[in-house]
Amino acid sequence: MSLVINHNLMSMNAARNLNESYNSLSTSTNRLSSGLRINSAADDAAGLAIRELMRSDISTINQGTRNANDAISLIQTADGALGVIDEKLIRMKELAEQAATGTYTSAQRLIIDSEYQAMASEISRIANATDFNGIYLLNGNLSGEQHDGQGLNATGALRIHFGTGNDSKEDYYDIQIGEATASALGLGLNAGPSARGKSISTQSLAQNALDALNEAIISKDNIRANLGALQNRLEATVSNLNIQAENLQAAESRVSDVDVATEMTEFTRQQIKTQSAVAMLAQANSLPEMAMQLIQG
């Protein structure tokens, strides 16, 4: 290479190497300070796309877990109310058994029937008042087999959504809760004309009411059994969603997070190269002075 003064090629080469080393050092510093291997699309375009999809799935699954837990709370609310209704039904059967015997007068049976009707009214009140977040659970609003969510207020079965898509086999299922009012159970004065549990004011009515109360208790137990099965299913769903989110988070970490040990090695290497390039640039910048010495003689 000739000794020239118009162009310092060695200085230009050293400056280029310094720029490359400094850029690599900046990238390592950015990764180590953020903890991420991918900080922009320029770092890894495909990896960034994969990471963002994983992040969206993780956030969605976490919300799905909260949805499922809310559904568990809803079921527990309904089951608690049905437990109270169970106590009222037991008391009503006890009263029917009392009125069915012949040792009471008609006036006394009317007194017994007044408590019987009060219990029936309380069952209806509980069923109509039990709600979760404004959603009434036992008044028959959720007793429909099909869910219809096209309107502002959904009708039919309650749909619990917990998946990342919209496939009924994987992402949601419907909760159907039967009506638990006294009239729906065939009890009390508001029951249908053919109901056998309307009253226990006579010995014959009281005897018929015993069978009606057995059927009412079975109907109520069917509702509770269905809710218990749904709660177990939701708890299994929550467990599965937690595992799924954990595995997705691990996969996202492998794609996105920086390996600190490896990156620290790269940082040290680029730091040494930068320092070396700075030193060599300083030396290269002084080389034209040799030409001046020759000119000066």
TrEMBL record:
Flagellin C-terminal domain segment(s): 210-294
Listed GO MF terms: structural molecule activity
Annotated InterPro entries: Flagellin (IPR001492), Flagellin_C (IPR046358), Flagellin_C_sub2 (IPR042187), Flagellin_N (IPR001029)
Record key words, sorted: Bacterial flagellum, Cell projection, Cilium, Flagellum, Secreted
UniProt subcellular location: Secreted; Bacterial flagellum
Residue ranges occupied by any Flagellin N-terminal domain in the UniProt entry: 5-141
Cellular component aspect of the GO annotation: bacterial-type flagellum; extracellular region
Pfam families: Flagellin_C (PF00700), Flagellin_N (PF00669)
Family: Belongs to the bacterial flagellin family.
Stated role: Flagellin is the subunit protein which polymerizes to form the filaments of bacterial flagella.
Name assigned to this protein: Flagellin
Organism: Desulfoplanes formicivorans
